[in-house]
Design brief:
Oligomer: heterodimer
Order of helices and strands of chain A: EEEHEHEHEHEEEEEHEEHEHEHEEH
Radius of gyration of chain B: 22 Å
Largest interface: A-B, 96 and 80 residues
Largest sheet of chain A: 9 strands, mixed
Strand content of chain B: 25-35%
Distance between the termini of chain A: 74 Å
Strand order of the largest sheet of chain A: 9-8-7-10-6-1-4-5-11
Shape of chain A: elongated
Structural class of chain A: alpha/beta
Distance between the termini of chain B: 68 Å
Number of helices of chain B: 7
Number of strands of chain A: 17
Mean pLDDT of chain A: 89
Largest sheet of chain B: 9 strands, mixed
Helix content of chain A: 25-40%
Helix content of chain B: 25-40%
Number of strands of chain B: 13
Mean pLDDT of chain B: 88
Low-confidence stretches of chain B: none
């Protein structure tokens, strides 16, 4: 298939690829419906997976004028192959010229595959897109987020993939039509199967709902030292999260991982202990209310992101902070009693 | 014909080099010291470990400026059997569409059983390239992978999911794009390094792969950079306390003022 085969009538509305987590559209993909409306005054959406009809019916509430869903048994959020075929078929049938996606593992695979299939440009890690003199222009950050790069597309189909968590969903009810897709699936897409799912039963599954998160990174000395963080989290009524290196060491379950390949959280208070603040981690927590960093390395980039920080050994500072907060709580309790 | 694993590598400016974008071309200045993309060491390790189970040859390929070819020697020291550099002035500034097309053309010729890519944790480029290469070659793709091994003639890969982990399985040949730190990369011994100096790195051009400029040159790219500007500085007005003594009291005060205690 090539660009020349795109025979659809041509649609001005960008097509938004909606992702589903735990039975609902992700906030990031919902936010792209608002982006689409801002770009073109209209939005189309496609959503695939077992729950997708239910999700599809919620999308006109966020500005989707036309919605397609594919909920056949071959569709699973973990298997992008059939999803790619469904989205590609829709692009051809309806002549979409712009597709907006998140930057999740699945969305990246979808964007990449569409790019190769249609010889279409893909700009990714975008912060925003806008029309300038009739041309779509994307912006992204580069060189450790120190510069803003404006990027453009040539060719008939434009693929725009956005950095996770850059936008907010906007509720705006439109009439909206919802239709089931009956896509044809290639043999390639069916070659990959799910052998096993290992759901983590750790309470970290609710990390996204925590108001306070105490997070540990590479600077945590050993697995036992994570108890210091657990004690502080408990004193503050929060939960413990970790950065990827600690999951890799087997110290904490993956469900507690914050960052690009883990969860995206935005608690009122995020205390980063021994976390350097790599971009991959920041993506998961930079929207938090108040960010506090404790790190022995004064040049750690987390100090450029936090609201307040301590350059010092977390193994000393964290237990003392826990003690002070517990003492405060005890004093409050006795005053109230 | 024996089994073969290909691993795609990228040469990047060394971590300590101050990155700079050339104003005229809007491209990253690559004139300074370079190194192998650190995430690619995981890709090499994963390729070597898959290869060990299949008794396979490991071939590394990279699209790289001539000045970066020697940087690829590190892959030989780590145990890769053969390194091919695709180096061509016309490829400078190639976007993902062009890069994936050029690599796919080379990989079609090599016909490996498994193609492994590292990640670039920040922008997911590895998964992008892997997805596009899989599409070009009509091969199944598994991305975001933390570990992969051959099991009963199929490739089995583990990756993170929203609810924990998921284990995927697919037929070979296939493409595997790793997530960040998938394994523990080996260190080359002194002997490995010395031996690697005696091996050849073959350098080929886009034309050697049968690509014409409209496919591999600037005309093939579908994205371009319009402009670059310094990011408006978000005033980092962080209050920083140095030392352990009194640090906890300082933090309690911060929390008090933010209404968080």
């Amino acid at each position: 298939m090539s660009g020349a085969d795109m025979s659809g009538s041509g649609s001005d509305a960008p097509l938004v690829f909606i992702e589903v987590r735990r039975g609902a559209a992700t906030p990031g993909s919902l936010a792209l419906l608002a982006t689409a409306r801002r770009l073109a005054g209209a939005a189309a959406a496609v959503v695939c997976g077992p729950d997708s009809e239910h999700v599809a019916r919620t999308l006109p509430g966020y500005g989707a004028d036309e919605v397609w869903f594919a909920d056949q048994p071959t569709f699973d959020a973990e298997l992008p192959g059939p999803i790619i075929d469904a989205v590609a078929g829709l692009i051809v049938a309806r002549g979409f010229a712009t597709v907006l996606l998140e930057t999740s593992v699945a969305a990246v695979e979808v964007a990449a595959s569409l790019s190769a299939r249609f010889d279409a440009g893909v700009n990714w890690d975008l912060q925003d897109v806008e029309m300038r003199d009739g041309q779509m222009v994307g912006t992204r950050l580069a060189l450790g987020d120190t510069v803003v790069v404006d990027v453009g597309w040539t060719g008939e189909l434009r693929l725009a993939s956005f950095r996770l968590g850059v936008g907010e969903p906007v509720e705006q009810q439109v009439p909206g039509s919802v239709q089931r897709l009956e896509p044809s699936i290639s043999s390639r897409a069916l070659r990959t199967t799910i052998h096993e799912r290992r759901d983590s039963t750790h309470e970290g599954a609710q990390l996204v709902d925590a108001a306070v998160i105490v997070a540990g990174g590479r600077g945590v000395r050993d697995a036992a030292s994570l108890q210091l963080l657990e004690a502080l989290a408990s004193a503050l009524g929060g939960m413990v999260a970790v950065s990827m290196p600690l999951v890799d060491r087997g110290w904490y379950p993956v469900s507690a991982q914050v960052g690009q390949t883990g969860q995206k959280v935005r608690p009122r208070l995020y205390i980063a202990c021994g976390i350097s603040g790599s971009l991959a981690h920041r993506v998961g927590m930079e929207k938090s209310g108040t960010i506090i960093a404790i790190n022995s390395d004064p040049s750690a980039s987390i100090f450029g992101l936090c609201d307040a920080g301590v350059v010092g050994d977390l193994h000393e500072v964290v237990p003392e902070l826990t003690r002070l907060i517990r003492a405060r709580r005890a004093a409050e309790a006795s005053a109230a009693g | 014909m024996g089994a073969k694993i290909c691993v795609c590598l990228k040469v990047v400016p060394r971590a300590e080099v101050q990155l700079r974008i050339e104003e005229a071309t809007h491209r990253l200045d690559r004139s300074g010291a370079s190194e192998l993309n650190p995430a690619d060491e995981y890709a090499i390790e994963e390729a070597l470990s898959i290869a060990a189970s299949l008794d396979a040859e490991v071939v590394a390929v990279s699209m790289v400026p001539l000045s970066g070819v020697e940087t690829l020697r590190h892959a030989l020291a780590l145990g890769v059997d053969r390194v091919v550099a695709i180096s061509d002035v016309s490829l400078a500034g190639a976007d993902m569409v062009v890069t994936s097309r050029v690599l796919a053309k080379f990989l079609e010729r090599e016909a490996p059983d498994v193609i492994v890519l590292g990640s670039q944790a920040m922008d997911g480029r590895g998964a992008m390239l892997g997805g596009a290469i899989g599409q070009h070659m009509d091969l199944p793709v598994m991305s975001g992978v933390r570990s992969a091994r051959v099991e009963g003639g199929r490739l089995r890969a583990t990756r993170l999911s929203a609810d924990g982990e998921v284990v995927l399985e697919t037929t070979m040949p296939c493409v595997v794009a790793l997530s960040g730190s998938a394994n523990v990369p080996r260190y080359p011994s002194f002997r490995d390094i010395v031996t690697s100096k005696r091996k050849d790195i073959s350098v080929i051009s886009a034309a050697d792969l049968g690509l014409v400029p409209s496919e591999s040159g600037p005309a093939g790219s579908r994205t371009h950079v319009i402009g670059i500007a310094p990011r408006p500085v978000r005033q980092a007005d962080a209050e920083i306390f140095v030392g352990e003594d009194g640090a906890a009291a300082f933090l309690v005060d911060v929390l008090d003022r933010a209404g968080l205690t």
